[in-house]
Design goal:
This protein is mainly α. Strands 1-2 form a two-stranded antiparallel sheet. The chain is extended, with a radius of gyration of 44 Å. Helix content is 69%, strand content 4%.
Length: 218
């Protein structure tokens, strides 16, 4: 049997296939011939191709990263707009404004060891306290939550309008017209007050005080 690899021919004898050493040697010869060094022209072509391929792959990865970042930013914008317009159902105090209102039965009523009521009285008191607190709050919110929310929204809308259209322009006008006064006052301080303070600090900085214990003999 003849096998051609490149310009060389290898003869393989198929008669003695039962000998493992011969099979192992033949496999090594085939492996060495298969991995012959390539000509320099092919190596140069591959050396030119690999940098181009790596550059293209890096550019594609960067484009994919930019697309992922844009998608994440759009998702964050959508979430922020939704959070501004839709109330939070599960977490209703995200900024922890009313932490002081986390009051339980143990924070209000406590019996010392010397004075104990009956066990059932204590259990029923605890249950009725929690039930009364929760359900009375719900009943009151049914009656007052909607109108109070409407009034507070109108109030904050009015304050926002006054702040945007009246207070901020007035402050800007005042700052623009009093810029010269700020410059004049800083110049007066730097010319007259600052040298006096520095000279006084240098004079008083040279004073040293020592404490010593004096014993009087009679």
């Amino acid at each position: 049997m003849m096998r051609g690899v490149g310009h060389e021919e290898v003869e393989i004898d198929l008669e003695d296939l039962d000998d493992p050493q011969q099979d192992y040697q033949q496999q090594q010869q085939l492996h060495q011939q298969d991995y012959q060094p390539q000509p320099p022209q092919l190596q140069q072509q591959q050396s030119w191709k690999t940098p181009l391929e790596t550059v293209l792959e890096e550019e594609e990865e960067e484009e994919v990263e930019f697309v992922d970042v844009d998608v994440e930013v759009e998702d964050e914008d959508v979430i922020s707009t939704q959070s501004d317009t839709r109330p939070l159902i599960n977490e209703r105090d995200p900024r922890q404004m009313n932490e002081c209102l986390k009051v339980s039965f143990e924070d209000v009523i406590a019996e010392p060891e010397s004075v104990h009521s009956g066990d059932r009285i204590w259990i029923w008191s605890h249950a009725l306290f929690e039930v009364g607190r929760v359900w009375f709050y719900r009943i009151v919110t049914v009656l007052l939550a909607v109108p109070v929310s409407l009034l507070t929204g109108m109030l904050f809308g009015l304050l926002s309008c006054l702040h945007i259209w009246f207070l901020t322009p007035c402050v800007k006008i005042t700052l623009l017209n009093t810029g010269w006064l700020q410059t004049l006052w800083s110049s007066v301080l730097n010319i007259f007050v600052l040298p006096l303070q520095q000279s006084a600090g240098n004079c008083y900085g040279q004073i040293s005080v020592r404490l010593a214990q004096v014993t009087w003999w009679r």
